[in-house]
Amino acid sequence: MSGVTPIPTDTYKIGFIGAGKMAESIARGVVKSNILPASRISTAHSGSGRRDAFQSFGVKVHDHNKKVVQDSDVVIFSVKPQIVKDVLLQLRPLLSEKQLLVSVAAGVRLKHLQEWAGHSRFIRVMPNTPAAVGKAASVISLGAAATEEDGELISNLFGAIGKIWIADEKHFDAITGLSASGPAYIFLAIEALADGGVAAGLPRELALGLASQTVLGAASMATNLGKHPGQLKDDVASPGGTTIAGIHELEKGGFRGIVMNAVIAAAKRSRELSQS
What we know:
NADPH binds at residue 65. It is a single chain. This protein is an alpha/beta fold. The protein has two domains: 14-174, 3-Layer(aba) Sandwich (Rossmann fold), CATH 3.40.50; 180-275, ProC C-terminal domain-like fold (Orthogonal Bundle). 51% of the residues lie in helices and 13% in strands. It contains twelve helices and eight strands. Helix 4 packs parallel to helix 5 and helix 8 crosses helix 9. The radius of gyration is 21 Å and the shape is elongated. The mean pLDDT is 96.
């Protein structure tokens, strides 16, 4: 887009407004992947615990968010959704259109972010908690003045913590219901599998280890083999065997419908929160 100053890809600095776990996961991933040296990343926090967490891998920690903004070409807002407006309005006098702004605040729409910031070179990103282990599913939507090059830069950054998809913002409530809330559904499934193993006579530690690894392995197959999950399920379920007996019980309980309803309910709640 004409009139937009490109971010200097060889020397740019990023700053995190908000020094929570998600910001830490992103920063750690960026450093570990050698996308940026820690010396070009900063945040601000007054608490010793969060300061120590970032300083432990070389990130600069300032006393005030204002210094983070002044020191950054890319500013990532990683604060709770209910305070992002106040934070943006407070920092607005310092924000420049030469800077690329990014929000990972759930449920806060680009039109509001752009209004509060005073300019529209903004990108909204929806990562999820597996960012902590480099396995995030992150979706990106570009604001009005964000360029294709801006999108590529942010895709590269967030690629350090997992996989990236680009989508229209209109899909973000559904994305929230699926990938942002989805890890909690899977944790429930792991717990239920382990409980089933215990009920069938396994020691708790063994049951939990088997359940966790089974979910990890199944997800890897679904991601890497290029087969529809229905086909993968059929490959396991031999005629008259143990797996089809278990699947029969899941179907009698409405398993697939319950999971679908969970995604829809979370998406609906996301829509309600974003409109409040």
